[in-house]
C-alpha cells in the first residue's frame, strides 16, 4: 500500500466556504489583497473560544502603485484597524494575533508587522474581509478546511499517526505547519483555486508570490463514482468517475489509479485519460476483482504545467479510494477491515508483555496503532487500529485458525479515523468482543438507562466484524466517550433546561484507568491519594491513572489532582466541611443520579476504574459517568445485593468519591434511588429495552462466528429479566414507606 489516506469514495467537493471561481467578478482598481493566512497552526494551545496566539494574516499590494492603508480595517473574521502604513507594489505586511509569539517563530523585519488583531480565525473556515478607510470591502476570502480548498493549513488536517514518516514527529512543527497562500490576485478571493498550501513549515509572511504562480490552480468542484453508496461497487465492472473542474480550458485531465496491495508500497500505477465536455469530465477505469480497494487521483494539465488537482498538494490524503466487492448479506450491519498480515501480527506483539514490563516500566507499544483500511459500503477509510480493553481484557480471549497468519486472537478493537474523515461523525469505533460482557445487553440497555437519567452515556449497536474478507466476530459497538459525546450531552441538557449556565465548550474529561495495584505510573483509580512510585512523580501518576480524553494535546493532570487532594482534605474534617466541599466542586444531583443507577445495576468493578470524571467549564463542577458495564444486572450480584456499594470503607474495594457522598448525602441518595426505581428503572421501562436489544441479535449470525457465542444468549436474557423485576421489588421493600 502506498503511503496514503482517504475518506469517503465520492461526493460533492464543496467546503464550508468558497466558490467555484470567478463568475461575475470584476477586479477593483486597487489590488490590495488578503494574500496569506495562518488560521490553524500545529499544536496550538487553548480552548476553542480562546485566541490562537500564533495566527496571522498577510495583506499584499498586487497593484502597480503605492497604497495608503491608514484607516483600513478587517471588518469580518478578525478585528483590526491599520495605522499609518503605505504599502508599495509587490510588498506585504502582516497583522498578527501576538507580536511576541509571532517573532519567536518567524524571522521577519519588525516594520512589516503592523499590529495585533483581536478575535480569532475559525479553524473550520470563515469569511475574512478587508475594507478601506471608507468602509468599502476591498477584498475578501471565504476559506474552508474542506476540499476543494487545501486541507493542510488546518493544522496539517491530521494527527501524527496519519502523517508521512518524513513529517513526524508532529512536535517538530509546533506553532507552524502550512499556511494558506494566495497565488492569483485578479480574481475572486473565495475561489479555492486562487490558493495553495505552503510547504511544510514554509510559510512566507511578508513575501508575495512565493511559489511563482500567476494563475489560479484548477480544482474539482464535484467528484462522483457511479453506483457508490451503501453497497460496494460490483466486481469485474468498469468504474465510471465523473467530475467538474473549476476551469474549462484545460489541455488534458487524467486519472492515475492502482489496486491497493496491503503487503507492499510499490503497486504499479496506471493512467486513464478523461473525456471532456466543457467543465465536466468522465473517466472509465477497467473492472477489477472482488474485494479490491481502488485508489485514484486526478491530474490536470494547465497553464503552469501538470498538477495533481485532487487530492490537493499538501493534503494528508494522497489518494481517493473506492471499494469493489459483493455485499455482505445479513440482518446486522457488517464492518469490513483490511490489514496486512504483518500488521495483524504486530497488534498482538504490541501487547504481549502487558501494560507494564518488570513492574515499573510502561510497555512502549501497549497503545500503538497499526495501519488498516475500514470499508463501509463502497466508502474507504484509512484507519489506525489496536486491540482495546483493560490490562486484563486486552489480552484475554480465544484464538482461531486463520489463513495468514495461521491463527489470530478474538479481541476487542479500537478503530481510529483521521480527523478529516470521521465515520458517521465519530472519530473512533470501539468493537467489544462480548466475552465477559456476553451478550452485550448490559451495555445496550444499561447505557440507555443512564442517558434517560441525564448521565453522559455512549450509544451502542450490534455489529458483525469481517477481517480481510472473512467473518471474524459478532460484536457490540460502544461509542467512545469524548468530545462529540459530551457536546451532545451538554446540548441535550441545555434543551431540557434553558436556565442552565451556557457551556462555552467542551470541558475536561478523564477516564479512571487504574487497577487494584501500583504498577509503573498507574495506581488505584478509586480517587485515593497517589504518591510517587517507581520513579514517577505524583503528577505523572495522576496523569497516567486518570487518562485525559479531551484537550489531550496540552491539558495537564492539575484539575483531577486538585479535586482528589481537596476531597481528602475535606474528608479529614467534619461532615459539614465535607458536604460544603462536595457542593462547591461537584454537581451533587448528577453524581447521586449516577450512583443510584450504578448501584441499582449491581456493580462489581466500578470502584477503581471503569468510570469517567468530567469538569464543566461553565462552573468548574465535576460529574461522574459510567463505563464498562460487564456482569452487571444480575450475573455477578443478584437482585437483593447491596444498594450501598462503596459506602462501607475497608475490607474490599471502595470508591472514595462514592464513599464521600454516602457519608453526607445518604438520605438524598436513597430518595434518588427510590425515585428512579419507580420511573426510569421500573420494569415497565427496562424490559421493553431488553426486548428490543434481544430482537436486534440474529442468533444465526452469532452461531456462524468462528468461535460461536461465548455464552447462552437466551439464558443471560432470563437473568437480566429476573434481575430487573426482582430488583425493583427489593428497592421498594428496603426504601419504600
Give the helices and strands, then pairings.
Blueprint: E1 32-38, E2 56-61, E3 67-68, E4 73-76, E5 80-81, E6 86-87, E7 92-96, H1 99-105, E8 113-116, E9 127-131, E10 137-142, E11 180-182, E12 195-197, E13 220-225, E14 239-245, E15 252-259, E16 270-273, E17 275-277, E18 280-285, E19 292-302, E20 305-310, E21 320-324, E22 334-338, H2 341-351, E23 356-357, E24 361-362, E25 370-376, E26 379-388, E27 399-401, E28 407-409, E29 412-416, E30 428-432, H3 441-452, E31 460-467, E32 470-478, H4 483-496, E33 508-512, H5 538-545, E34 546-548, H6 558-571, H7 575-585, H8 588-600, E35 611-615, E36 622-626, H9 656-677, H10 683-695, H11 699-703, H12 713-735
Parallel strand pairs: 7-8, 22-31
Antiparallel strand pairs: 1-2, 1-11, 2-7, 3-6, 4-5, 4-9, 9-10, 11-12, 13-14, 14-18, 15-16, 15-19, 17-18, 19-20, 19-21, 22-25, 23-24, 25-26, 26-29, 27-28, 29-30, 30-32, 31-32, 33-34, 33-35, 35-36
Helix pairs in contact: 3-10, 6-7, 7-9, 8-9, 9-12, 10-12
Characterize this entry briefly.
With 737 residues, the protein is of the alpha+beta class. It contains twelve helices and 36 strands.
Features:
six-stranded mixed beta sheet, seven-stranded mixed β-barrel, globular, disordered N terminus, 737 residues, alpha+beta, 12 helices, Immunoglobulin-like, 4 domains, 36 strands
